Amino acid sequence: MTIKRIGHRYSDSKSGTTIDVWFPRSNKEIARSCLAQKVGLIKGDFIEVEIASVDDAPKSAEEAYLRLHLLSECAVKPNEINLDGVFGLLANVAWTTAGPVLPNEVENLRELIAAEDHQFNVTCVDKFPRMTDYVIPEGVRIGNADRVRLGAHLASGTTVMHEGFCNFNAGTLGHSMVEGRISAGVVIGDGSDIGGGASIMGTLSGGGTTVISMGKKNLLGANAGLGISLGDNCIVESGLYITAGTKVKMPDGEIVSARNLTGQSGLLFRRHSQTGAVEAIMTDGSLWGGLNTALHSND
């Protein structure tokens, strides 16, 4: 499948380094403007980018940006498009209210726009910008846009609360409540809830190569953690962090490592209230009541 899109590129005026590329969904030549461009620190131009195969690794920053757009547009799902080497392709950028510049140009930008009526702020210094500055997904609410990176895949019906976070190449496949952290590579199924302060292991530093996923109608309790995949209709008790090596007592008394339960459905993970031992019991998932549908009607 060949993908070809027209984008508007910002690059550093001195070095020519690509800073970012915005690809309008309409595939039209739509220019952007900002103070950093006005004072000459960056320049803008149009570029046509082609991806011959999503299975091949990106070869340029421009191609990497198109792949991130495709994820946030929900045109492709997480882990279905090759992003190998993306960190090495993207420049570290100071994302400011006057436009994106290389970090060593921030002081120059302040000086050059001093005469402008503008309250200057640096929102972050990172390789990945906020998703909402480039793509607005359909049927989604996001409480704090700073916590959702470009390349996040948020399906219609997703609500990301103010403390929720979603990394690139990760996200939701349906109606979901996100109050915790969805790390890179993680995929959340329809009808699932990531509780406040909860965290799911990703595939970046410390996360190894195993892709963690949650199926449908799962509840990851507040301040819980997940290092194995869940099937459907599972519950993880608040405050319980399950890693692959966690020893879990099964209903028949057998003790197994949690990695042996990865992908299974209908399990409630909890701690024994007196001994603290981690247990797994069978459940149909109805104990937590499911999502409040009124919270995910985001039209």
Describe the structure.
With 299 residues, the chain is mainly beta. The chain is built from 4 helices and 25 strands. The chain has an 8-stranded mixed β-sheet, with no helix packed on it. A 5-stranded parallel β-sheet has the order 10-13-16-19-21, with no helix packed on it. A 4-stranded parallel β-sheet has the order 8-11-14-17. The longest helix has 12 residues, at 61-72. The chain is elongated. It starts with a strand and ends in a 17-residue tail after the last strand.
Mean pLDDT: 94
What is the CA–CA distance across the termini? 31 Å
**What is the helix content?**
under 10%
The largest sheet has its strands arranged as: 7-9-12-15-18-20-24-25
Unreliable parts: none
Strand content: 25-35%
Rg from Cα = 22 Å
Order of helices and strands: EEHEHHEEHEEEEEEEEEEEEEEEEEEEE
Largest sheet: 8 strands, mixed
Give the class from helix and strand content and strand pairing. mainly beta
What coarse outline follows from CA principal-axis ratios?
A: elongated
Number of E-state strands: 25
Helix run count:
4
Kindly list the characteristics that best describe this protein.
single chain; 299 residues; mainly beta; eight-stranded mixed sheet; five-stranded parallel sheet; 25 strands; 9% helix; 29% strand; elongated
